[in-house]
Amino acid sequence: MSAQYVPVLLTFAFAAVMAGAIVGLSAVLGRGKLVHKRKLEPYESGMLLIDASRKRVSVKFFTVAMVFIVFDVEVAFLYPWAVSVKPLLAEGNTLVLWDGLIFLLLVTIGYVYLWREGAFDWAKRGSEQ
Q1: Could you tell me if residue 118 is left (phi over 0), alpha (psi between -120 and 50 degrees) or otherwise beta?
Q2: pTM of the entire structure?
Q3: CA-CA distance, 72 to 92, in Å (whole number)?
Q4: Beta strands in the chain (DSSP E)
Q5: Residue 81 and residue 90: Cα distance in Å, rounded?
Q6: E strand or H helix that includes residue 82
Q7: pLDDT of residue 63
Q8: Where are the domains of the chain?
Q9: Rounded Cα distance, 67 and 75, in Å
Q10: Residues 6+ away with beta carbon under 8 Å from 125
Q11: Using the 8-state DSSP alphabet, how is residue 34 labeled?
Q12: Which of 72, 74, 127 is nearest to 103 (CA)?
């Protein structure tokens, strides 16, 4: 075995011993399991459940979540672009400006499409149930 791998193997061995020691100490020193009727309920808030815990959820909530994720990711791409555009414009590279404007145009087209489809019309969404 090469001597250059000894520190790596020692690190792995130390990590394994520490993980085993922590798990073992928690099993020995930790409290026993306390099982109460309240602990077996879906929510441990101390309040009685109003209705069934497993009920159907409307697809509208998933639609709202997906729209948020899509626009959130698109906006997250704007930050690195904005940081890199100023030095590139100083060099005379205007292509990066047009790329950003096209990206914003596509985001705007998506936003207008969702708006026309009624994805943001909350009053209409609430009355459809």
Answers
A1: left
A2: 0.48
A3: 30
A4: none
A5: 15
A6: helix 59-90
A7: 79
A8: 3-40, 59-127
A9: 12
A10: 60, 118
A11: -
A12: 74
